[in-house]
Amino acid sequence: MKFLLMLSLLFSSCALSPGMVYNEKAPEDGVVDSTSQFQNMQVRLRSITPQNVREISANLVPTNQVPAELLALKPEAYRLGLYDVVTVTVWEHPELTLPMGQYRSDLASGQMVDEKGQIFYPYIGMVPAQGRTAGEMREHILGSLSTILNDPQLDVKVTGFRSQKVFVHGAVKAPCIVPVTDVPLTLLNAVNSCGGLSPDADASQVELQRQGEHYVVDLYAKYAQDSGPAQILLQDGDVLRVASRDENKVYVLGEVNTQAAVPLNNGKLSLVQALAEVGGLSPLSAQSKGIYVIRYVDSAKVEVFHLNARNPLALALGDQFALRPRDVVFVDATGLARWNRVIGLILPTAALISHGASTAADIHTITK
Fold first, then answer.
1. Separation between Cα atoms, residue 26 and residue 24, nearest integer Å
2. What is the DSSP letter of 321?
3. What value does the mean pLDDT of the chain take?
4. I need a surface site. Which of 135, 171, 192, 250 has the fewest CB within 10 A?
5. CATH number of the domain enclosing 187
6. 10 Å Cβ neighbour count for 50?
7. Bridge-based pairing state of the strands 328-333 and 249-254
8. Sign of CA dihedral 257, 260, 265, 268
9. Distances 18 to 108, 139, 360 between C-alpha atoms, Å
10. Number of structural domains the chain divides into
């Protein structure tokens, strides 16, 4: 009789043991789609199943689309600003082209736009320059020189670009200030001008601040033709910041081999990848059918996604489930593991009491 009792306990404990059991015909267990309340927040619990994993993943990942206002900026002629340098070339009149000598650089021999937005030119005087293009400057100077010279031939070009800048910092190899020139400056060119992305950069989180607005661009995402980062033109005062991977992590807690914060790889990380990064489930205490992804939506809503991985085939679903920054992956413990922990807390106290009682009995025996 005692043998049969022990045998039944043995088989029941095997049924409750942690770990996974492969069975391609195993029925679905515990498929849930329910809503509850927790501390005045709505909590929606949904199971990850073959029927909804694509739908859930599609909802998790935002559509890769560059905001229309970023694509609205089109190439246009460079307009002069304060402290830019322009060089005026007048053919057959070197005294007007290089009045200080022919061995000076274009930057040194040019005329700088002063703090009043003007340049000085011989025989003309002060010429308004700020806000004008090189072509507009040429027309103005040509009209003035025509009263002095017979059919003057001249050209105006910008040789020093000092007034307009784009600032690039964050996870790039060499944070820098990129001048805006007469060649349109794209977002990708600005990043490459600073040495490109650093090894710890998150290419999915390139932040652009422009005139009080904040945009986030994913450099590696798939975009429609002619509507990606290569088509985003930058303008004076733009600030680019490339985020680090350490800023975008998911937190894997509970019954795993190593609890840790796992960074996303350029904005991408699946549930199975996150579990693999921490060494997988604990074989002694993890309840494989109790894997949860907890996502804070806002102060009124939390979403919880449940994966039952008792059958390892379910891990294929977990590999299709895309995590988001600051998701919490929690692996529940088995009932047996909880029981062992309770016993582990009780036994030292019980042993201490037993030892104390035994000592008291010994003392009583000795003093008798």
1. 6
2. P
3. 82
4. 135
5. 3.10.560.10
6. 12
7. parallel
8. positive
9. 78, 84, 42
10. 3
Q: Kindly report the CATH number assigned to the domain that includes residue 122.
A: 3.30.1950.10
CB 75 within 8 A of CB 133: no
Residue with tokens 């060089």: 87
> Distance (Å, rounded) from C-alpha 309 to C-alpha 317?
9
**Could you tell me the sign of the dihedral formed by the alpha carbons of 136, 141, 142, 146, in that order?**
positive
Structural domain that includes position 330: 28-60+248-335
Q: Given 113, 140, 160, which residue is the final one in a domain?
A: 160
Summarize pLDDT for 132-144 with one digit per residue, the tens. Answer: 999 999 999 999 8
* Cβ–Cβ < 8 Å for 47, 310: no
Nearest to 110 by CA among 95, 100, 125: 100
The three-point CA angle 147-149-153 to 5° equals 110
- The values of phi and psi at residue 197, to 5°, are -70, 145
Q: Is residue 266 part of a domain?
A: yes
Can you list the residues of the chain whose pLDDT is less than 50?
Answer: 1-17, 20-28, 101, 103, 357
Residues 235 and 292 in one domain: no
